[in-house]
TrEMBL record:
Source organism of the structure: Extibacter muris
InterPro entries in UniProt: Methyltransf_25 (IPR041698), MeTrfase_TrmA_AS (IPR030390), NA-bd_OB-fold (IPR012340), SAM-dependent_MTases_sf (IPR029063), TRAM_dom (IPR002792), U5_MeTrfase_fam (IPR010280)
Gene: rlmD
Keyword Transferase among record annotations: yes
Molecular function via GO: RNA methyltransferase activity; S-adenosylmethionine-dependent methyltransferase activity
Active-site residues, as the UniProt record annotates them: C414 (nucleophile), C414
Name of this chain's protein: 23S rRNA (Uracil(1939)-C(5))-methyltransferase RlmD
């Protein structure tokens, strides 16, 4: 088999996210062909062979799959955004569920409850955010504004008929494209690093109907003079929209990276935020802060998280990777306290404001990298919710998270491959997967959210003592001194030896006066105050005595 060779074959299955498998009997080889659906007979060319593995790209669909339908979107196939518009929604769900389930069956040790896939309440026009790119339709062609063409680095497909956003987006897109074309200014060329127009960001709340529009350009031309940004805003404001424009913005971005980056945002009209409602709570959303892109689907996702976390009364919950604090605030009304950690400061500020609006005074939000701040929060959680970005949790952060030894962790993953990798480490550190479900927030596309409930294994303390702690060290009186110093320094608390003994007993740890008795009878309850129990537990984790 050589690069450039053309073959025909049938896609037997599709692995997450879009890896179709075609077996070629004559070559006795399976080739990965991207972006097809199971059952399609395709003609493809081989474009990569590495370490004996071959990849190809589809040139033509010779015979459709039996379940295939006419896609509602006229850009389907050309636009790189959607992959499954040609499958009935039920089939999309089946395919995504089987992909994730197969991956999880491999990643999970032992039995777990698979709860299937929950559909998105809206199957079309469900997105509350879209980032469109400027470019040309083809080399040196007219200015275009839309999505990247499938498989192309440069070409942009105008997506005036896009079905995953509603009519308001389509009107805003068409208006901006026409205005930009008439301005005669060039798009930003990603290889030459010259030009002006980069992206158009549109966000629209499903519940409040508020719309935020942001054009992202370089500073090569003058927004007011050359582009006449005020006139663009007038044209947008004159559009007959269902929703209401809350703000029109201009963001400058001169960086060479091809991402929407905020290097300064000016308000052209209205305000630089808008509001959405989820499960009866109100959320302020700023242009660049994370918010689930399918509001109705997000409600299903957060309901699942709430059900998985279970009883939260009198519990301290950590919401790690908290964005604008949605999960924290959904859990706060029935928890003792919720602590959110998020790296984007703007999102943290919004989270604080949101909590105040929603009348929640038991939420605290910290700005910073989970890895760096998690052990300096001065709190010990009872439960943890993790909703990391696509790459999952940094291994060192995961180590610290599991070190808290909480009873339950709920992990929300937008990329199941990252979850599968992180599960391996979490299972190795004393957790077991209880249940899992998928929630489809992205109909028509390959993406899917997966939620996993992990609980701490009952016998983990003892296993870990043997694995990580030298018995001498745990039983030595010197350890008591180390724990006292740690608690004093970190929490400003003095703890008596009898309290340390009480907490050790709670965890079934050997006592210094009875080194061979791990299961010390639960005799005296000495009344160690709860904050000291938590502080001592933190110290025990710090010294790897419990996890
Ligand atoms: C998938 S989002 C989840 C947001 C939130 N839980 C929600 O449902 O809206 C992941 C969030 O993690 C944040 N993030 C990424 N890396 C981070 C890090 N190292 N430490 C803290 N937050 C991070 C991102 O800014 C983003 O807001």
């Amino acid at each position: 088999m050589k690069k450039g060779q053309v073959y025909e074959g049938t896609i037997e299955s599709v692995e997450f996210p879009n890896k179709g498998k075609v077996f070629l009997p004559d070559e006795d080889k399976t080739v990965i062909v991207k972006n097809g659906i199971p059952g399609q007979k395709v003609k493809f060319s081989v474009n990569k062979i590495r370490k004996g593995k071959a990849e190809g790209s589809i040139l033509e669909v010779l015979r459709p799959s039996e379940v295939e339908i006419e896609p509602a979107c006229t850009h389907f196939g050309q636009c790189g955004g959607c992959t499954y518009q040609n499958l009935p929604y039920e089939e999309q769900l089946k395919l995504k569920e089987s992909q994730v389930k197969a991956m999880m069956d491999e990643a999970v040790d032992g039995d777990y409850v698979w709860e299937g896939i929950k559909p998105s309440p809206a199957r079309q026009e469900y997105r509350n955010k879209m980032e469109f790119s400027f470019g040309d339709e083809y080399k040196d062609g007219p200015l275009a504004l839309g999505m990247h063409k499938r498989g192309s680095f440069h070409d942009i497909v105008n997506v005036e008929g896009c079905r995953i956003v509603d009519e308001d987006y389509r009107k805003i897109l068409a208006c901006t494209l026409e205005y930009a074309r008439n301005s005669g200014l060039p798009y930003y060329h990603r290889m030459r690093h010259t030009g002006y127009f980069r992206h158009l960001l549109v966000r629209k709340a499903v519940k409040t109907g508020e719309i935020l529009i942001d054009v992202v350009t370089t500073s090569e031309y003058d927004f007011d003079g050359s582009f006449r940004g005020d006139k663009w805003a007038d044209e947008l404001l004159a559009l007959p929209l269902d929703g209401k424009i809350a703000g029109i913005l201009h963001t400058k971005n001169d960086s060479v990276a091809d991402v929407v980056k905020d290097e300064g945002t000016d308000i052209v009209y209205g305000q630089d935020c808008f509001y959405e409602e989820l499960l009866g709570l109100k959320f302020k959303i700023t242009p660049f802060s994370f918010f689930q892109t399918n509001s109705l689907g997000a409600e299903v996702l957060y309901e699942t998280v709430r059900a998985y976390i279970g009883e939260t009364k009198d519990k301290v919950i950590f919401d790690l990777y908290s964005g604008t604090g949605t999960i924290a605030q959904i859990l706060a009304p029935v928890a003792k306290r919720v602590v959110g950690v998020e790296i984007v400061e703007e999102a943290v500020e919004a989270a604080k404001e949101n909590a105040a609006w929603n009348g929640l005074d038991n939420c605290t939000f910290w700005a910073g990298d989970v890895l760096k701040v998690i052990d300096g929060l001065g709190e010990v959680p009872d439960l943890i919710v993790l909703d990391p970005p696509r790459d999952g949790v940094h291994p060192k952060a995961l180590e610290k998270i599991t070190n808290f030894g909480v009873e339950k962790i709920v992990y929300i993953a937008c990329k199941p491959t990252s979850l599968a990798r992180d599960l391996e480490m979490m299972q190795g550190r004393g957790y077991r997967v209880e249940r899992m479900a998928c929630v489809d927030l992205f109909p028509g596309t390959v993406h899917i959210e997966t939620v996993a409930l992990l609980t701490r294994k009952k016998d983990v303390e003892r296993i870990d003592i043997e694995m990580t702690v030298d018995k001498e060290d745990v039983t030595e009186k010197a350890t008591y001194q180390k724990i006292k110093e740690y608690v004093k320094e970190k929490y400003g608390l003095n703890v008596h030896t009898k309290y340390i003994a009480e907490v050790k007993r709670k965890h079934g740890l050997p006592m210094h006066d009875a080194p061979n008795r791990v299961d010390v009878p639960k005799r005296a309850y000495l009344g160690c105050p709860e904050e000291k129990v938590k502080a001592i537990e933190d110290a025990l984790r710090y010294y790897n005595i419990i996890i």
